[in-house]
């Protein structure tokens, strides 16, 4: 069963302490290398405010919220 998960952040978290180089943790949910960031968040830069989107490998679709 598919689930729709809402992410409120489209930039990664930096974990600088205790590592030789900074480590970036995915916060957008699109990374193919979770939990690490692979740059996929760049696809989300032009999202509109509170809108909800569904992504696949080729495209995104704006989803209307229904309560």
Report on the architecture of this protein.
By secondary structure, this protein is mainly β. It starts with 12 loop residues before the first strand and ends with a strand. The model has no long low-confidence stretch (mean pLDDT 86). The chain has a two-stranded antiparallel ribbon. It has a two-stranded antiparallel sheet with strand order 3-4. It has one domain (13-63). It contains no helices and four strands.
Quick check: average pLDDT?
86
Relative helix content:
under 10%
Look at the helices and sheets and give the structural class. mainly beta
The total of beta strands comes to 4
What's the main sheet like? 2 strands, antiparallel
As residue ranges, the low-confidence spans are none
Distance between the termini: 19 Å
Proportion of beta-strand residues? 15-25%
The secondary-structure element order is EEEE
**Assembly classification:** single chain
Strand order, sheet with most strands: 1-2
Radius of gyration: 14 Å
How many H/I helical runs? 0
How many separate structural domains? 1
Question: What shape does the CA trace take?
Answer: elongated
């Amino acid at each position: 069963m598919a689930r729709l998960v809402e992410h409120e952040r489209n930039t990664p978290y930096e974990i600088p302490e205790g590592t030789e180089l900074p480590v970036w943790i995915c916060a957008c949910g699109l990374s193919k290398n979770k939990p690490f960031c692979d740059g996929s968040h760049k696809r989300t830069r032009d999202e509109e405010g509170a809108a909800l989107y569904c992504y696949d490998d080729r495209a995104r679709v704006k989803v209307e919220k229904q309560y």
